[in-house]
């Protein structure tokens, strides 16, 4: 670790200090400590293998030689969200009294191929939902997770019967759902993509974003309605398993 230089929040040194501090407080065998150390190690290995640095902020991304690539990925993400009708411009003066406006932030990730080469530069827009207050800005957050017993049973049945198992990934899954009408979410304008004066306008989220505490629950509701439309029945012992 550095001895004299000032530690900048968010750089590799501060992350290592944070992980070491957590280990001293919680113990090296603590699961959260181990996950923090593994996340730090994997991130550094990822940067070494591809020879690129993953920026933590937009200002940091602007200082990198790959800024144009990051900017292109940001525009692609923003345009996709606009096409899905995620945002609605609202004047700050028209917000309900005591409404909280959370910050929108870019999160960057370098996607790699199996051989370590760069697949693409991925930018994702997230909301800093930790600023929302439970019981005031939102209520329910619960979302089910499939049980390991259910997963093992399905794999065992497939192994016996020879059935084929396939998987699918839903891009921007949470964006498919919407916040509840009684708990509207307001965010700042998208950094680097401001359409209007950010001091006068904010976004009302017509669809959920990653980072909003209840996005998992609202997405599960959408998935349940979709599965029901296909005449699937929810398993009596696992809310995330459906049978037809």
Please specify the SSE layout and strand pairing.
Blueprint: H1 12-26, H2 31-50, H3 58-62, H4 67-83, E1 87-91, E2 101-102, E3 104-112, E4 118-127, H5 148-161, E5 186-187, E6 201-205, H6 215-229, E7 233-234, E8 242-243
Parallel strand pairs: 2-5
Antiparallel strand pairs: 1-6, 3-4, 5-6, 7-8
Q: Domain count, please report it.
A: 2
- Give the end-to-end Cα distance, rounded to a whole number of Å: 57 Å
Order of helices and strands: HHHHEEEEHEEHEE
Work out the helix count.
6
Q: What does the main sheet amount to?
A: 4 strands, mixed
With strands numbered from the N-terminus, the spatial order across the biggest sheet is 1-6-5-2
Shape: globular
Proportion of residues in β-strands: 15-25%
What's the β-strand tally? 8
Low-confidence stretches: 1-5
CA gyration radius, whole angstroms:
21 Å
What is the SS-derived class? alpha+beta
Mean of residue pLDDT?
A: 77
Helix content: 25-40%
């Amino acid at each position: 670790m550095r001895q004299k230089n000032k530690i900048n929040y968010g750089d590799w040194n501060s992350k290592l200090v944070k992980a070491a501090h957590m280990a001293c407080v919680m113990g090296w065998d603590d699961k959260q400590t181990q996950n923090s150390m593994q996340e730090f190690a994997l991130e550094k290995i990822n940067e070494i293998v591809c020879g690129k640095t993953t920026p933590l902020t937009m200002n940091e991304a602007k200082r990198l030689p790959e800024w144009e690539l990051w900017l292109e990925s940001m525009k692609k993400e923003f345009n996709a969200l606009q096409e899905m009708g995620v945002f609605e411009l609202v004047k700050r003066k028209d917000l309900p009294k005591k409404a909280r406006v959370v910050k929108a932030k870019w999160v960057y990730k370098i996607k790699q191929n199996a051989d370590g080469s760069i697949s693409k530069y991925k930018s994702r827009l997230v909301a800093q939902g930790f600023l929302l207050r439970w019981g005031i800005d939102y209520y329910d957050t619960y979302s089910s997770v499939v049980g390991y017993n259910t997963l093992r049973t399905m794999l065992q049945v497939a192994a016996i019967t020879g059935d084929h198992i396939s998987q699918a990934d839903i891009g921007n899954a949470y964006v498919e759902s919407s916040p509840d009408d009684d708990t509207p979410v307001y965010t700042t304008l998208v950094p680097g993509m401001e359409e209007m004066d950010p001091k006068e306008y904010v976004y009302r989220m017509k669809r959920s974003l990653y980072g909003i505490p209840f996005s998992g629950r609202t997405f599960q509701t959408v998935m349940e309605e979709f599965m029901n439309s296909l005449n699937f029945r929810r398993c009596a012992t696992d809310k995330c398993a459906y049978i037809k």
